[in-house]
Amino acid sequence: MRSEWCRELLKLVKSVEGGDEAHGFPHTLRVLCRALKLAEGKNVDYRVLVASALLHDIGRPFENQAGVHHAALSAFMARLILPGLGFSPEEVARVERAILEHSFSLSEKNRDKPGSKSSIESCILSDADKLDALGAVGAYRLVETSAQRRRSMRQTLAHYHEKLSKLPDYMCTEEARREAAQLLERLRSFVEWLYEESKDYFDLAEAVDKAFPSTGY
């Protein structure tokens, strides 16, 4: 992290993404930490990997306003930023591809085969990003994101089943697959406890909705 280009990226990304623990700069730092750990012992281009990890969500704050998927925005912004920091056209192209390939939702939309990536750097970034959505950290992010997006408890549980529970199937490296299986158990326990403690409430709320459909409850 002593390289000048890395210092400049850190400063830029921190100022753009802010302190949102779920999807802001703290998430980016956690992804970077996981990516560096997954890269140990592998033939990795660390300039490409670090730049990809730092920039993978830089477009997220502008996603709703632009109406463009945050991974596509982040890749576009990387293309504008990196040449000024001494990155070659080939390096920039590899960073762009890694950023585009990291997203679960974009992969689902494009019907990409789970775990299929164009480079080891892309593979590691995708795994690191998905691991951050599992385990105890994943439980924290699930609750925080649900609060931000005003999801009900039912919608929160549905999000777990529709996306988070599938993440281990999308891991690319063997290390990430092993860790994802362990972390999913922690997250699954939290979700099961949430459902168990709320099921009587769910039944009552459903009965109230049927009895008073016009209240908007």
UniProtKB/TrEMBL annotation:
<dbReference type="Pfam" id="PF01966">
    <property type="entry name" value="HD"/>
</dbReference>
<protein>
    <submittedName>
        <fullName>HD domain-containing protein</fullName>
    </submittedName>
</protein>
<dbReference type="InterPro" id="IPR006675">
    <property type="entry name" value="HDIG_dom"/>
</dbReference>
<dbReference type="InterPro" id="IPR006674">
    <property type="entry name" value="HD_domain"/>
</dbReference>
<dbReference type="InterPro" id="IPR003607">
    <property type="entry name" value="HD/PDEase_dom"/>
</dbReference>
<feature type="domain" description="HD">
    <location>
        <begin position="24"/>
        <end position="134"/>
    </location>
</feature>
